[in-house]
Write a structure and sequence with these properties.
This protein is of the alpha/beta class. The protein is built from 15 helices and eight strands.
Amino acid sequence: MIEDFTYYAPTKVVFGRGAENKTGELVAELGCKKILLHYGGGSAGRTGLLGRIRASLREAGAGFVELGGVVPNPRLSLVREGIELCRREGVDFILAVGGGSVIDSAKAIGYGAADEERGDVWDFYARLRAPRACLPVGSVLTIAAAGSEMSPSSVITNEDTETKRGYSNDLCRPKFAVMNPELTMTLPAYQTACGCTDILMHTMERWFGGGGSMELTDGVAAALMRTVIKNAKILMAEPENYDARAEVMWAGSLSHNGLTGCGTDGGDWSSHQLEHELGALFDVAHGAGLAAVWGSWARYVYKENPARFAKFAAEVLDVPRGADDEETALAGIAAMEDFYREIKMPVSIRGLGVEPTEAQIKKMSAKCAANHPDGMGKMKKLFEDDIERIFRAAM
């Protein structure tokens, strides 16, 4: 049965070579005067990107302050620092220059800076209360992966409690996203592969829900995933292939702006929740963590709907139909893991270079279950014992 849905994608996209030079113009269109320029490490500076962004803002007459230092699995402590900076400087717009971690950090700062109650921004991620406003956010994308540039979602790590939590609210959807595929050409192969995995998983999570689907949405989702798989392989051999970079960058946005979930129940998202625990405890790359746990999750739940897994195998991975849906489903899971191996992604937790102890497996399982007291996932409701079994199988 096709589920009712609301599709909302208000982000203005400026895509192509040299698109970052239009950033100041885009900010001026919104009437914003004081910008927080938010970014990660030194690469944006070394490549000259930040210089071009600063020049564009000055030309548009926009003042700005800066806050760098965002790391993968963005930290709550830096978010809190950004909130205080925005309040002190009267910031009315946040410009994220980077990938999903920088955009997520910007969204969290936007919530906190606009919070009239002046409480702790972590309250929103802990589901203790909901934000009423968010400073407007825009992005100049440098990594195709998270899709945060068009999504209502953000994920923040509380390093004090070793807890990584996501939160979704349309208030934080970026006003614009500047996308120049050339900016992704200098990424290491591992980071490119992590990004492609993240893009695929955003669509796969929606594909493997517990409810119905639309034929049209399935067709869009399958085409998107086939495109990413094809171009991920190209980029392993040709990292400066503009067309392949462009295909992957646009797929990243469409995979997480709601399009591939229209008519579904919203998706399963168990693999993401499992990875969040790994990321919080071991600070692993998000895409790699997803690849490490997905196969074990899939083998644990596929019997709930083998036909859905078989459809994925046939339409996304070109796996020949077997004697029945179960045979095709299992072949599809194996084929997906083969693809991950081909692009040098791990298919086990040990492949991430970490080996959780018994105590750590139990800790991750308990925290994951506590965050979902009514059961995690849509394909199959998972509780603490189930989660622990999946983590063990993924080792």
